[in-house]
Design brief:
This protein is mainly alpha-helical. It is built from 19 helices and no strands.
Length: about 500
């Protein structure tokens, strides 16, 4: 299938590589890691923050969802701003704003101030993430270097959430929960300095006008859906609030899709997602993060409340999975992608990840880490390491320079919305399953010790059922990646281009 967004040979995109490109990659990677880990770094710190600021149980979820709502809902707008203003300028603005919002959150004196700061972090992350990926896309445009660069970037995207859990545990246990936010300030300032000195970009494209109706419809629809899914944890799937939000969100996105076919300069040019390779990659990314982020929520809670792990020990439990993602992304996927079609990495990767999640459905209230938890999380890390890098490289390959920002934003949106859906959907499945299981067993329990054990068993049962659904979602992703993504290997594409060039002489 032809792609109208493909950059023709001989354009400036294929010019001589930037001599500072690997230092530039370090800057981009540091910024992206900061954005990704901030979705989870406060998870382990949340009980401490709740006690300090007097946040109620009903409102504590907003420490997490204020960030994900603003981030996921505004990513497409952030991508278009990057195209309009310029990627480097947007990147630097996003870094400075993110640092300021982090400092505000770290100094919060009440819950409302912390919620506002987290939402503000999400707003600037929505500027930062798409500009970072589009800068990477145009800095490494061809060949094996592109595969290596995307291997590093994919490793951070896949492992950043787990690194956030570890870092959150260390900072909370040895310093204070506020440092989970303050830590972003020095990282962002170093990245600003590096970006100013090392990254290069053209001026923004003035023809990339902002599609205001598209912004309202697209961002409104995404926010309504993510908000509805989060509220389902509290109010249930059949409540009027949740149903209204979900139906309204879907309706807004349907109107958004229609409007994108009419707008002169659409927020999301539909040819970007109509391409089967790009659309299949974006959908695979969404399904992968549904399962991955759902597992982070369960395992963090399981390790601390069921097995009695400390915050730092719980964070360390995710280290082997993070290491596996990084090693496989940089040493396996990055080396193989140049020679094999992307689906031969993505399909098996999602299948292995599904197997890892299925393995974790057998955990119990006294499961050992080495015998029960580690094998499943290592399989999940292996699968994600094989998947994330080719997904990102394929989704952003062959895009016209003027659309690189919004394409990168679409990939990030898939990741963020997938994570939000996974957290809300799987947590609701777990809690309702646990409630039904306990309702049928607790009335017959008499002793206090037996009651405590029964509650623990019910909680674990809910986790395992939800993890089973996560495994099934990964299986669907494996099928989609294998069937939809038909792009050849970069080596065969280069060979065809050389043969075509030789034929013209």
């Amino acid at each position: 299938m032809s792609d109208p967004a493909t950059t023709p040979p001989g354009t400036p995109e294929a010019s001589a590589p930037d001599p500072h490109r690997w230092w530039g990659l370090a800057v981009i990677a540091a910024a992206q890691l900061m954005v990704v880990l901030d979705a989870t770094i406060v998870n382990i710190a949340l009980p401490s923050a709740q006690r300090d600021l007097g946040i109620t149980d009903a409102n504590r979820q907003w420490v997490i969802t204020a960030y994900t709502l603003a981030f996921g809902g505004l990513l497409l707008l952030g991508g278009r701003v990057a195209d309009f203003v310029g990627r480097k300028r947007t990147f630097v603005i996003g870094l400075i704003g993110f640092a300021a919002a982090s400092a505000l959150g770290g100094g919060a004196v009440n819950g409302g101030m912390l919620f506002f700061a987290r939402a503000l972090q999400g707003v600037f992350a929505a500027l930062l993430a798409p500009s970072a990926l589009s800068l990477l896309t145009t800095t490494f445009s061809i060949g094996r270097e592109r595969a290596k660069a995307f291997g590093i970037y994919g490793a951070l995207a896949g492992s950043g959430a787990a690194i956030g859990l570890l870092l959150g545990g260390i900072l909370t246990e040895y310093l204070d929960w506020r440092w989970c936010l303050y830590v972003n300030v020095p990282i962002a300032m170093l990245a600003v300095t590096g970006a100013t000195l090392l990254l290069h970009d053209r001026a923004g494209h003035k023809e990339a006008r902002l599609d205001i109706p598209g912004v309202v419809l697209g961002c409104g629809g995404l926010i309504a859906i993510v908000y509805g899914l989060n509220e389902a944890q509290t109010h249930g799937w059949t409540s009027k609030l949740v149903l209204s939000l979900l139906i309204g969100g879907v309706a807004l996105l349907a109107v958004f899709t229609w409007w994108q076919t009419r707008a002169k300069r659409p927020l999301l040019p539909l040819h970007i997602v109509r391409n089967r390779n790009r659309g299949g990659s974006i959908l695979t990314m969404c399904l992968a993060t549904i399962g991955l982020f759902g597992l982070f929520l369960f395992m963090t809670y399981y390790l601390q409340t069921i097995l009695g792990y400390s915050p730092i020990r719980a964070g360390c439990a995710f280290l082997p999975m993070s290491a596996m993602i990084i090693i496989v992304s940089t040493q396996v996927s990055a080396r193989l992608l140049h020679f094999v079609p992307p689906r031969l990495l993505m399909g098996p990767g999602m299948l292995i990840a599904a197997g890892g999640l299925f393995t974790l459905t057998f955990i119990g209230t006294h499961s050992g880490y080495l015998t029960h938890i580690l094998p499943g999380t290592l399989m999940l890390g292996l699968g994600m390491g094989l998947t994330f890098m080719p997904v990102m490289a394929t989704a952003t390959s062959g895009v016209a320079e003027r659309d690189s920002g919004v394409t990168s934003a679409t990939v990030n949106t898939a990741q963020q919305v997938g994570g939000s859906i996974g957290t809300a959907l799987l947590n609701t499945l777990a809690t309702t399953t646990t409630a039904d299981w306990l309702a049928s067993r607790l009335p017959s329990v008499t002793s206090k010790a037996e009651k405590t054990q029964t509650v623990k068993s019910g909680v674990v049962h809910g986790f395992t059922v939800a993890t089973g659904w996560a495994s099934l979602i990964m299986l669907v992703g494996a099928v989609i990646a294998t069937v939809l993504v038909t792009a050849p290997s970069p080596r065969s594409t280069e060979a065809e281009a050389e043969a075509a060039g030789a034929g013209t002489h």
